[in-house]
Specification:
The complex is a heterodimer of chains A (about 110) and B (about 110). With about 110 residues, chain A is mainly β. Chain A is built from no helices and eleven strands. In chain A, a hairpin with a 2-residue loop joins strand 7 and strand 8. By secondary structure, chain B is mainly beta. Chain B is about 0% helix and about 50% strand. Chain B contains no helices and eleven strands. In chain B, strands 2, 4, 5, 6, 9, 10 and 11 form a seven-stranded mixed sheet that branches. Chain B starts with a strand and ends with a strand. The chains are: A mainly beta (about 110), B mainly beta (about 110).
């Protein structure tokens, strides 16, 4: 199974400042169809997960453009250009390239300083 | 609007059984694969099981194989998870998810004597 490793575990950020989360996979996430099935999910406190980004860099419907994804192969990054109070929560990367199973990173907690 | 509503959670003794349901609306349910993903209290996300749109392909995490059974009824726009031989480590919020892009609010399963 592919192991997903996220860093940092926690990211205290000042409102209006950027935040960055890294996700590394134990194997390349490039599928035989040429796509890379790496997604980012946001989970606000007490809420279910919500899809933010799919296939590395595509924002899901309704996701603000301050969220962006990048990367390739085994190394991926989620960036928030200017953190707002509503961005507090835990962020997970998820791979679906080598399925089953779906595998998730351990999560990164974004909190306000 | 996509809606996924889970039900059927509750308190059950070790060795007991529960059947979770997920009612889907706002999209053509029969066209999508569906997943169950769980989250133990204070922990990250763990994939449990997946079923293809026509039920042709079914997959389970090793941790639940032989104990849980996923199924769906496309005529009723519903997804199910039959959970038998429950253990304390199965205690979690169980989410149904449409592929990876839409998630329900979850239903809490507590296994305790």
């Amino acid at each position: 199974d592919i192991v997903m490793t996220q860093t940092p575990l926690s990211s205290p950020v000042t409102l209006g400042q950027p935040a960055s989360i890294s996700c590394r996979s134990s194997q390349s996430l490039v599928h035989s169809d040429g796509n890379t099935y790496l997604s980012w999910l946001q989970q606000r406190p007490g809420q279910p997960p919500r899809l933010l980004i799919y296939k590395i860099s595509n924002r899901f419907s309704g996701v603000p453009d301050r969220f962006s994804g990048s990367g390739a192969g085994t190394d991926f990054t989620l960036k928030i250009s200017r953190v707002e109070a509503e961005d507090v929560g835990v962020y997970y990367c998820m791979q679906a390239t080598q399925f089953p199973p779906l595998t998730f990173g351990g999560g990164t907690k974004v909190e306000i300083k | 609007e996509v809606q996924l509503v889970e039900s059927g959670g509750g308190l059950v003794k070790p060795g007991g059984s529960l059947r979770l349901s997920c009612a889907a609306s706002g999209f053509t349910f029969s066209s999508y694969s569906m997943n169950w993903v769980r989250q133990a209290p204070g922990k990250g996300l763990e994939w449990v099981s997946s079923i293809s749109s026509s039920s042709s392909y079914i997959y389970y995490a090793d941790s639940v194989k032989g104990r849980f059974t996923i199924s769906r009824d496309n005529a009723k726009n519903s997804l199910y998870l039959q959970m038998n031989s429950l253990r304390a480590e199965d205690t979690a919020v169980y989410y149904c998810a449409r592929e990876g892009d839409s998630w329900g609010q979850g239903t809490l399963v507590t296994v305790s004597s």
